[in-house]
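Title: [Solved] Methyl-accepting chemotaxis protein 3D structure

Original question kept below for reference.
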Amino acid sequence: TKEQTKGVENTNKKFEGISIAIDEMQEVVQTLNESGKDMESKKSEIITVIDNLSAISQENAAGTEETVAAVEEQTASISELANASESLAKLAEDMQVNISRFRY
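Solution (posted by the thread starter after getting help):
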């Protein structure tokens, strides 16, 4: 009977060890689940930030296109002014020639 008692005690100790190991595993699994939820939350935040950055980039691209269009328009206007200025200078020369004819 002593051997049986020792055998039962050994079996009980082993079951207690198994029970402790199961409890520890449950804690590890719970920690992993919490980490997974935290990672999912962070992933959602990162996706939101990336979406916002994408929208800002698109707005910047649109603003850049508008600026380029405005610069091209101003360049065309300056070119027209330069042509008009050349025409006026030519007219002024012609007028000087005509006026000088009347003086003599």
